[in-house]
Prior knowledge:
Layout: H1 3-19, E1 26-27, E2 37-38, E3 43-45, E4 51-53, E5 61-67, H2 72-88, E6 93-99, H3 105-114, E7 120-123, H4 126-131, E8 140-144, E9 149-155, H5 160-172, H6 176-183
Parallel strand pairs: 5-6, 6-7
Antiparallel strand pairs: 1-9, 2-9, 3-4, 5-8, 8-9
Amino acid sequence: MTRRTQIGALAIAMAIAINCSYAPPRRTSVKPAEKRNPAPDFTLKDAQGKSFNLSDYKGKVVLLNFWATWCGPCKLEIPWFVEFEQKFRDKGFAVLGVSMDEEGWEIVRPYVERTKVNYRVAIGHDMMAQAYGGVDSLPTTFLIDRDGKIAAVHIGLVSKSDYQQDIHTLLGAAPAALSSAVRH
């Protein structure tokens, strides 16, 4: 390996360690309801081995977070998500964490217990990441509206206030089915 190759490899490793991503953090604002696409449904197992689907959460605003135990920015966000789960769950909100750790529950379960995660966590896989457009950077978070549609995407570390603003926007919005029923 040449010196230049070694330096390049070290720079990439440092970027991954610091940001867990090659891309700079970016956030999309909440899209208008008519421009949202359905979130792909999935079936995963939580830490207790119980299967669940995204469709089980229809009618709720869902923060779907792809993360890993080795990802520094992910570790910064998790306490925010714990707070959001506690603060907003009675308002029709849920956080779902999808760990992309290759070691699986062996490493994820102790981390979740140690950090007192209060929301459902599952182990993800490449097919699921591809269904969501190819989750190439961690953290990647999807905000899903009450109708099961992707309202916003956050790639990399974005501010806690950005998440709060989007959650408040989505919690204030009635599901399309209810809105249309009210109009008729």
